[in-house]
Amino acid sequence: MATVPEFEFRTSSACQYNNNDPRCVEVATNIPGKVAVRSTVTGRTVEFTAEEWTDFLSGARLGEFDVAA
């Protein structure tokens, strides 16, 4: 039986990690076709296909998820 690789998370470059307030997002892209996103607070992980992740990033760059003040 083949070994299933584990996600290798890296912290977002936008994160200003602070030990007193460790709210950051970590992303793993080491498994072909998959992207995992994890919260440093809860440890919860959400998985996306590579296509879903690319579509999300494109939308974010265009401001689709901006919150109106």
Automatic annotation (TrEMBL):
Superkingdom: Bacteria
InterPro entries on file: DUF397 (IPR007278)
All copies of domain DUF397, residue ranges: 9-61
Protein name: DUF397 domain-containing protein
Origin species: Streptomyces corynorhini
Source lineage: Bacteria, Bacillati, Actinomycetota, Actinomycetes, Kitasatosporales
